[in-house]
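S2.1 Query sequence (Glucagon-like peptide 2 receptor)
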Amino acid sequence: MGSLLDDTIRKWSDYKLNCTKTLTPKNVNRSAVYCRASFDQFACWPESPPGNVSVPCPHYLPWIKEGGASYLYRYCTDNGTWLTVENSTDIWRDHSECSELNRHFKQQEDKHALLSVLQFIYTIGYSLSLFSLFLAVLILLLLRKLHCTRNYIHINLFASFMFRAVSVLVKDIILHITYAKRPTDETGWIFYFNSEISAACIVTQVSMHYFAGANVFWLLVEGIYLHSLLFTAVLSERRLLKKYMFIGWGTPVLYVVPWAVTKAIYENKECWSTIINMGYWWIIKVPMTISITANFYIFVKILKLLFSKLKAEQIQCNDYKYRLARATLVLIPLLGTHGLVFAFFINEQGEGQSRHIRLFSELTINSFQGFLVALLYCFSNAEVQAELKKRWRFLFTNHFEHAADCIQGKHFKYLGKYSKRRPNRYFHQSEFYIDGRRPSSMQFLQVPLRRNAVEYFTRGSVSSSEGEGTLGETLEEILEESEI
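Output structure tokens follow.
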């Protein structure tokens, strides 16, 4: 809607400028009677003799083609004045031929209704993703036991989803504020091209492309890290984290900045939201397509490894197929491999029904993807659930111990000291530990993982902290729980 309105107003401005140039008085016989030339904010009327006057419908109207056969009419009276509406000073004008194509408005109304529904859906999706991802990041940051390279990567991935959601929602808010106004005069309409409004819209558009790119490259980082666990020896994860940070946050800068400079120089129109020259759009599309393709390659490679391992150790008939399907469903949102369909098989500049299908599919999946990733890799994660339950039991137990201290007559101001001296108690594998003597978790140091990396998938059941199956047990957890 915004791009169509911008384009119409720009064409109207050009039409008005050309009209004012042609309205200069010509060398005509001044002894004759003529109606004065004018521009009535809709069409350009030349100096005309008495009688019916017709001019082509203005071509700035979206449904009018320049050089078409549609006209609008006025009437010049014998005394050299334009005919007015009865009992009014408004000049009479017949513009029925210019507005007879009501099907255009009907199509635009239907299109606007469809896009409004789509906007509502992806707004719900991005809002839900934003809330769930914020909660997931908070959990991973506050639970210190979960601090590791794997979860640092997850946190950055969640953050990229969050920034992407915020940029889309902010862009929609700015566009709504901009185009919700209804100017009542020429100055008001021209104000649509105010540099401040245009700059705010362009900044949000550039930010949206940057964070969309960051999101794609953090998905690639997840794939690279998972590949390194399955196919190579993990040496220094901390050292690799800096490289991962550059890939995730730095790579998008390398192509978004050149794209922005190119748009500013050669295609500084509207809000940079419309693809006019496909060549400029490839500056953004090529790096993102390469990233998505690389992740798809990793995805296929992991599935081949899982398939070969599971098929070689079949336990219960077709059980391995179920586990492979489950692993596939878990990997798809993490690696973003569905993006390959939108990158190669759907035309960016398509119109009509194909464009609506692309928009609906892409925006719906992208908006809810963050929520799905947070659900699978945080809220349904067995390790996170176990840590949260342990914290809850600790707080619950501490609360009643403080209450018991009060009942036994201990002075209230000393309760803090008593609680500090109280040793920490842990339960681990049905054994009791005091003062943090709990055994540390396994670390990956130069361990060849090719043979046992998918040991977990060959088990008869899927275990979590309570013995229940969950999709949240990712391949990283599989590696940690395997008997290596």
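The domain at 2-98 is CATH 4.10.1240.10 (Hormone receptor fold). The chain has two domains: 2-98, 109-386.
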